[in-house]
Amino acid sequence: MKIGTKSVLYGAHCFLIHPWFVMFAWWKLYGFPNDIRLWVAFFVHDLGYIGKINMDGPEGETHVELGARIMGIFGKKWADFSRYHSRFYAKKDGVQFSALCVADKLAICLEPAWLYLPRVRWTGEINEYMNLAVRKKYDGEPVSKYESMSLSTRSAKDWHTGMTSYMRRWVEEHKDGREDTWTPGVKKAIDLNGVYQ
What we know:
Layout: H1 3-10, H2 18-30, H3 36-44, H4 58-61, H5 64-71, H6 76-83, H7 87-93, H8 99-110, H9 113-123, H10 125-134, H11 145-151, H12 156-174
Helix pairs in contact: 1-9, 2-3, 2-8, 3-5, 5-6, 8-12, 11-12
């Protein structure tokens, strides 16, 4: 089974867990989500990982397209709302990230490590995530010294602490929709699987 499929079934993007944390994050940031289209977006935005051979490589980055196609039933605005929940995809297309992006990033921070880490270990996602951090995925981004040390460690718990610290700061800086000057615009492949730096 491909890693993207495992992620959606029981990993970081588990369809029974992750959407609820996105909903809680939305509620915390913007108030209770009364619009049914938001609820649909919470549940479909990451379904595109199904069948992907990596999470952060060229294939994994395109996961946003399936959710965008599904949300397209509500119009282009909602398709883009889902598509641009990826800050890297938004940068690539030269557009603003969506509010779903902010809630999605906060969701990672709201989910406790004791729930998140066993799942990403089970799927193997943790290996890609930590290898990217060691290979400086966050180069060019305003990572604090402590976050850099935590992200570059071999301890999953320390990596999670550094990653969520960085994501909380990104959310705080961008929750009002200000331009994303933190996320690099270009990624380059760093391994034979096409996983990006």
